[in-house]
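Illustration: PBSX family phage terminase large subunit.
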Amino acid sequence: MKKINIAKFVNPRFSFLFKNSTLYSDVILSGGRASTKSSAVSMWLLTYFLTDANANVAVFRKVFGTVRGSVYQQIVWAINQLGLESRFKLQKSPLQIIDKLTGTGFYFYGVDDPMKLKSAKIAKGYVRWLWFEETAEFKDWAEIDTVRLTYTREKLPNGYKVQTIYSFNPPRNPYAWVNGWAEEQKTVEGWKVDHSTYLDDKRGFLSQQYLDDIERYKANDNEYYRWQFLGEAVGLGNNVYNMDMFHPITELFEDDPLITVAYSLDGGHAQSATTVLLFGITAKRKVILLDTMYYSPAGKSHKLAPSQLSKRVHDFIQQQLKDTRWGRLPIEKRTIDSAEAALRNQYINDYDIAWHRVAKKTKQIMIDNVHSLLAEGRFYYLDVENNQIFIEQHRNYRYDEKTLDTDDPKVIKEDDHTADAFQYMVLDNASLLGLKL
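Result:
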């Protein structure tokens, strides 16, 4: 095999992985977005995998559905960089990358249910390396350790020990479990904790366009920049959103036309409000709140039934179709809370149209998704009467102060219907909006 200079694929920041890796049983790599830590991990794992014909690598994400598009592709990238494409068999079901010469390989798992992994079997050899990517997605250390102990309990030959890598971008909440856990491990023997940022890219892997984008984030919302790109746990504050990032406009952009629209619905019945938000997306992927439908049953002796709400929602959409500014544009999606069954079923029955149920994530993740859009300076709203309820609710959207100093902060669930609907839209249209969630 020809000699390959691994160093040209890895930033010097991570040279300790290759020079002193056997010193550590566990390595924690935290850092900001674009710090190139995941690329370094994949190259390190592949390099050492090639030194042991009986060793395997097990790679984990919290949710299996995220594995193929992230860690799996990351290992494929490393294989391609070293020109070893012909040596490996890429399997999609089950998700594995097998070395044709040795029969060992890389095994990929989701930890949706940690107990299921206790029965996971490797075809040949032993597992010598573990990689938990996006460690912050996991519920707690116990969830990870349940998996880890499955592999560390087996005695390996030649005095080898299982080595584990944990990589993640720190949550903005300083009380998130993973932030405190990483800090505690700094004094544990055999553990290495490292924090990196995009500023450590000495090899010039990042494009100038990307660096310019980072500078735009820095100028628009410095706190977001510090969290996302410097990896600082900047804290949550009381207000959930920076309202300076909600830009009012009175007219649509002449030089950036709308190309599609999207609806998002948060439903309520006897006790809570129902809202439908209409968003326009421009050619340059600006997002504009065009109109809002809002019905609250508060103080009303006769509450609208699902059949009546269905008609009101339909009438709202029909009215939008008459608007000469956006009525003829394609509807990208009609997004609805996955838990809203009654109104969705009623709408199907009435109009033979199924709203798309959003695959909700944790509340903080959905909030962070909206932060990503806002920090890019791409969100606008038509400053009209119907949209004032949206602005009012976002201005008053706050964390419960009693939960701020915990690893599970809660927003105050009061008059938050437009906030929920906004989060659903961003999550459900992330690809269209160019967001990497």
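Reading the tokens back as a structure: DSSP finds 13 helices and 15 strands in the chain.
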